[in-house]
Write a structure and sequence with these properties.
The chain is an all-alpha fold and 207 residues long. It contains 8 helices and no strands. The chain binds adenosine-5'-diphosphate and magnesium ion.
Length: 207
Amino acid sequence: MDFDTPLAEAWIRAIAAAVEKEQSRLTELDSAIGDGDHGSNLQRGFTAALTALDGLQPAGPGAVLTKAGTTLISKVGGASGPLYGKAFRAVGAALPEPAGAAALAEALAAGLDAVRALGKAEPGDKTIVDAWTPAVAAFRAAAGGGAALPEAAAAAAEAAEQGALDTVPLQARKGRASYLGERSIGHQDPGATSTALIFRTLAVKNP
Ligand code: ADP
Ligand code: MG
């Protein structure tokens, strides 16, 4: 199975639906160590991405993700808009057509590189990077071992969810939560949590 245009569109739709469903949880997490807008930021961004896709001429999966990324950058004011926007643009730009599991793993790695280039966060800084990094490693390992896309995506989702849980004891060193210093300890990072949602929807959307 390849990551094709219908799958790319289904992924963005699934993220929008998941963000809608989890919006209040994301907002709650961001209220504890940020300014409480992570859920609404992503809800606004991915709703706009859906509208942008409706107007998109038939295009490859890379163009779908690039368009979603561009929309996130233009519609979301918070830190997560440019970070996820650049990430989706980088994944889109790196995707060959057709893309199998190994190619998608490399494209997702390019997305992580883009997040790190913009945000300068290291693993352990309590950010998106703490979920996206293990997700890419798991995706790569599964694809390298011959797993098809659904299995590789499921492994990545599990790793991202664990990565998000593992942010709880960390002290934030990037973003708004870092202003809290030690008081950021004991809370799950909202961005790592939304990254886990993004990888989970990729796994679910692979029939
Ligand atoms: P804002 O912090 O501007 O209100 P959001 O609430 O939408 O934006 O997003 C907050 C999330 O963004 C954090 O939980 C964190 O995971 C992520 N984040 C913040 N700064 C960075 C960074 N420099 N690198 C990676 N992720 C970051
Ligand atoms: Mg916020």
